[in-house]
Request: fold
Amino acid sequence: MGHVVDIMRLKFRSGASEAEILKASDQANGLFTTMPGLLRRALLGPDKDGFWVDTVEYDSLPSAEQSAKTVHEKPGVAQAYFALVDMPSLTFQRLTVRGEAVG
Reply:
């Protein structure tokens, strides 16, 4: 245990197509996959109200903290993705996994 999950709940800007969103998310994956401690990133949604959930799971809190620092130091890499986000809708949580089941 001890994995950390960053959870962003968000909407994308009006007019952003699903194809644009997925392309920008895939481009951001290029950065995330280079980060030590990354276990998984998933983009889920949208729900009936237009919200998406973007989750990033790390092996530890230090890995999550370093990842956040890297994203801020290399804004161009994730810029296309965040340019599509309706920023007022975005909420962020960082939680520690306390239990899990794996099939």
In short: The domain at 4-96 is CATH 3.30.70.100 (Alpha-Beta Plaits).
